[in-house]
Amino acid sequence: MLGVQTVSSQSAATGSSTQTQSMGREEFLALLVAQLKNQDPLNPMDSMDFTTQLAQFSSLEQLYNVNAGVQGLSAYQQGMYNAQAVSLIGKQVVAEGGNNFVLAGDSAEISYELPADAQNISVSIFDEAGQQVAVLSPGSQNQGVQTLVWDAGDAASGVYSFRISALDAQACPVDVQAMLTGPVTGIEFSDDAIWLTVNGEQISMESVRAIRQ
After folding, report:
1. Which of 6, 19, 108, 185 has the fewest CB atoms found within 10 Å of its own CB?
2. What is the count of structural domains for the chain?
3. Residues of the chain with pLDDT > 90: what percent?
Protein backbone atom coordinates (compact mmCIF):
# COMPACT_ATOMS: atom_id res chain seq x y z
CA MET A 1 0.00 0.00 0.00
CA LEU A 2 1.24 3.45 -0.88
CA GLY A 3 2.03 5.59 2.18
CA VAL A 4 2.46 9.27 2.82
CA GLN A 5 6.14 8.70 3.57
CA THR A 6 8.73 6.59 1.80
CA VAL A 7 11.50 4.96 3.75
CA SER A 8 14.80 3.73 2.31
CA SER A 9 17.49 1.88 4.23
CA GLN A 10 21.15 1.74 3.45
CA SER A 11 23.54 -0.77 5.01
CA ALA A 12 27.14 0.09 5.68
CA ALA A 13 30.09 -1.86 7.02
CA THR A 14 29.53 -0.37 10.45
CA GLY A 15 25.76 -0.76 10.54
CA SER A 16 22.64 0.48 8.82
CA SER A 17 21.02 3.90 8.53
CA THR A 18 17.43 4.81 7.75
CA GLN A 19 16.45 7.91 5.79
CA THR A 20 12.91 9.24 5.79
CA GLN A 21 11.69 11.64 3.12
CA SER A 22 8.36 13.44 3.31
CA MET A 23 6.14 13.14 0.23
CA GLY A 24 4.27 16.20 -1.01
CA ARG A 25 0.69 16.14 -2.22
CA GLU A 26 1.65 16.40 -5.90
CA GLU A 27 4.02 13.44 -5.68
CA PHE A 28 1.49 11.42 -3.72
CA LEU A 29 -1.27 12.04 -6.29
CA ALA A 30 1.09 11.27 -9.20
CA LEU A 31 2.10 7.96 -7.67
CA LEU A 32 -1.51 7.06 -6.93
CA VAL A 33 -2.55 7.77 -10.54
CA ALA A 34 0.44 5.82 -11.87
CA GLN A 35 -0.48 2.89 -9.67
CA LEU A 36 -4.05 2.92 -11.03
CA LYS A 37 -2.84 3.10 -14.64
CA ASN A 38 -0.36 0.26 -14.25
CA GLN A 39 -2.38 -2.12 -12.14
CA ASP A 40 -3.16 -5.59 -13.45
CA PRO A 41 -6.72 -5.55 -14.88
CA LEU A 42 -7.09 -9.17 -13.82
CA ASN A 43 -5.92 -8.36 -10.30
CA PRO A 44 -7.01 -4.78 -9.58
CA MET A 45 -6.16 -2.88 -6.44
CA ASP A 46 -8.10 -3.96 -3.40
CA SER A 47 -10.95 -1.51 -2.73
CA MET A 48 -9.95 -1.23 0.92
CA ASP A 49 -6.39 -0.28 -0.02
CA PHE A 50 -7.64 2.27 -2.53
CA THR A 51 -10.01 3.83 0.02
CA THR A 52 -7.17 4.03 2.56
CA GLN A 53 -4.91 5.79 0.06
CA LEU A 54 -7.63 8.30 -0.83
CA ALA A 55 -8.08 9.00 2.88
CA GLN A 56 -4.34 9.55 3.21
CA PHE A 57 -4.37 11.98 0.32
CA SER A 58 -7.35 13.83 1.81
CA SER A 59 -5.50 14.17 5.12
CA LEU A 60 -2.39 15.39 3.32
CA GLU A 61 -4.42 17.98 1.41
CA GLN A 62 -6.05 19.23 4.59
CA LEU A 63 -2.68 19.54 6.33
CA TYR A 64 -1.31 21.48 3.36
CA ASN A 65 -4.26 23.90 3.44
CA VAL A 66 -3.97 24.35 7.20
CA ASN A 67 -0.25 25.06 6.89
CA ALA A 68 -0.87 27.61 4.13
CA GLY A 69 -3.54 29.27 6.27
CA VAL A 70 -1.27 29.43 9.31
CA GLN A 71 1.54 30.96 7.24
CA GLY A 72 -0.84 33.57 5.85
CA LEU A 73 -2.14 34.41 9.32
CA SER A 74 1.41 34.67 10.67
CA ALA A 75 2.37 37.10 7.89
CA TYR A 76 -0.76 39.17 8.57
CA GLN A 77 -0.06 39.31 12.30
CA GLN A 78 3.56 40.31 11.68
CA GLY A 79 2.38 43.10 9.38
CA MET A 80 -0.03 44.37 12.03
CA TYR A 81 2.72 44.16 14.66
CA ASN A 82 5.09 46.17 12.46
CA ALA A 83 2.42 48.80 11.80
CA GLN A 84 1.77 49.07 15.53
CA ALA A 85 5.48 49.60 16.15
CA VAL A 86 5.70 52.38 13.54
CA SER A 87 2.72 54.13 15.16
CA LEU A 88 4.81 54.50 18.35
CA ILE A 89 7.18 57.03 16.76
CA GLY A 90 6.85 60.31 18.62
CA LYS A 91 5.05 58.79 21.60
CA GLN A 92 6.36 58.47 25.14
CA VAL A 93 7.00 54.94 26.35
CA VAL A 94 7.94 53.42 29.67
CA ALA A 95 10.11 50.33 29.28
CA GLU A 96 12.19 47.88 31.27
CA GLY A 97 15.96 47.88 30.95
CA GLY A 98 16.95 51.48 31.64
CA ASN A 99 16.99 54.26 34.20
CA ASN A 100 17.06 57.44 32.16
CA PHE A 101 14.49 59.98 31.03
CA VAL A 102 14.32 63.16 28.96
CA LEU A 103 13.74 66.61 30.41
CA ALA A 104 12.25 68.80 27.67
CA GLY A 105 10.54 71.48 29.79
CA ASP A 106 10.23 72.39 33.43
CA SER A 107 9.16 68.91 34.57
CA ALA A 108 9.63 65.24 33.71
CA GLU A 109 8.18 61.88 34.70
CA ILE A 110 10.19 59.10 36.33
CA SER A 111 8.89 55.52 36.44
CA TYR A 112 9.95 52.43 38.38
CA GLU A 113 8.44 49.22 39.73
CA LEU A 114 8.29 48.10 43.35
CA PRO A 115 8.18 44.30 43.85
CA ALA A 116 6.64 44.89 47.30
CA ASP A 117 5.24 47.70 49.42
CA ALA A 118 8.04 50.08 50.39
CA GLN A 119 8.78 53.03 52.63
CA ASN A 120 11.65 55.49 53.06
CA ILE A 121 11.94 55.75 49.28
CA SER A 122 14.63 58.07 47.94
CA VAL A 123 15.08 58.95 44.25
CA SER A 124 18.37 60.61 43.29
CA ILE A 125 18.53 62.37 39.91
CA PHE A 126 21.75 62.87 37.93
CA ASP A 127 22.60 64.95 34.88
CA GLU A 128 24.52 63.69 31.84
CA ALA A 129 27.82 64.44 33.59
CA GLY A 130 26.84 62.18 36.49
CA GLN A 131 26.32 65.05 38.93
CA GLN A 132 23.45 64.73 41.39
CA VAL A 133 20.97 67.55 40.78
CA ALA A 134 17.97 66.57 42.90
CA VAL A 135 16.61 64.10 45.44
CA LEU A 136 12.93 63.16 45.64
CA SER A 137 11.28 61.59 48.71
CA PRO A 138 7.83 60.24 47.77
CA GLY A 139 7.31 58.53 51.13
CA SER A 140 5.63 55.11 51.34
CA GLN A 141 4.32 53.47 48.15
CA ASN A 142 2.53 50.26 47.30
CA GLN A 143 3.77 47.39 45.17
CA GLY A 144 3.59 47.97 41.41
CA VAL A 145 4.64 50.51 38.79
CA GLN A 146 5.05 54.01 40.21
CA THR A 147 5.46 57.36 38.43
CA LEU A 148 6.91 60.52 39.95
CA VAL A 149 6.87 64.02 38.47
CA TRP A 150 10.10 65.92 38.93
CA ASP A 151 9.64 69.69 39.05
CA ALA A 152 12.96 70.55 37.42
CA GLY A 153 12.70 74.31 37.71
CA ASP A 154 15.40 75.92 35.57
CA ALA A 155 17.39 72.70 35.00
CA ALA A 156 18.75 72.36 31.47
CA SER A 157 16.93 70.17 28.97
CA GLY A 158 18.55 66.83 28.18
CA VAL A 159 18.81 63.22 29.24
CA TYR A 160 18.93 62.51 32.97
CA SER A 161 19.26 59.30 34.97
CA PHE A 162 18.05 58.29 38.41
CA ARG A 163 18.81 55.85 41.20
CA ILE A 164 16.33 54.60 43.82
CA SER A 165 16.71 53.22 47.32
CA ALA A 166 13.81 51.84 49.35
CA LEU A 167 13.09 49.78 52.47
CA ASP A 168 10.19 47.50 53.34
CA ALA A 169 8.29 47.44 56.65
CA GLN A 170 11.09 45.37 58.24
CA ALA A 171 13.70 47.94 57.13
CA CYS A 172 15.11 45.51 54.55
CA PRO A 173 16.21 46.85 51.14
CA VAL A 174 13.70 46.52 48.31
CA ASP A 175 15.06 45.61 44.88
CA VAL A 176 13.46 48.42 42.85
CA GLN A 177 13.38 48.08 39.05
CA ALA A 178 14.06 51.39 37.35
CA MET A 179 12.41 52.05 34.00
CA LEU A 180 13.43 54.03 30.97
CA THR A 181 11.06 56.83 29.96
CA GLY A 182 11.24 58.80 26.72
CA PRO A 183 9.93 59.37 23.19
CA VAL A 184 10.35 56.78 20.45
CA THR A 185 12.52 58.35 17.75
CA GLY A 186 13.19 55.36 15.50
CA ILE A 187 12.22 51.78 14.63
CA GLU A 188 14.47 48.95 13.43
CA PHE A 189 13.40 45.51 12.25
CA SER A 190 16.18 42.97 12.68
CA ASP A 191 16.85 39.46 13.99
CA ASP A 192 13.11 38.69 13.76
CA ALA A 193 12.47 41.37 16.39
CA ILE A 194 11.38 45.00 16.59
CA TRP A 195 13.73 47.49 18.24
CA LEU A 196 12.73 50.98 19.37
CA THR A 197 15.14 53.87 19.73
CA VAL A 198 14.44 55.70 22.99
CA ASN A 199 16.77 58.30 24.53
CA GLY A 200 19.47 57.17 22.10
CA GLU A 201 19.22 53.54 23.22
CA GLN A 202 17.72 50.53 21.46
CA ILE A 203 15.14 48.54 23.40
CA SER A 204 12.95 45.61 22.36
CA MET A 205 9.28 46.30 21.81
CA GLU A 206 8.47 43.49 24.25
CA SER A 207 10.06 45.52 27.07
CA VAL A 208 7.53 48.38 26.75
CA ARG A 209 5.26 48.57 29.80
CA ALA A 210 3.27 51.72 29.04
CA ILE A 211 2.59 54.11 26.14
CA ARG A 212 1.74 57.77 26.58
CA GLN A 213 0.83 60.54 24.19
Report:
1. 19
2. 2
3. 34
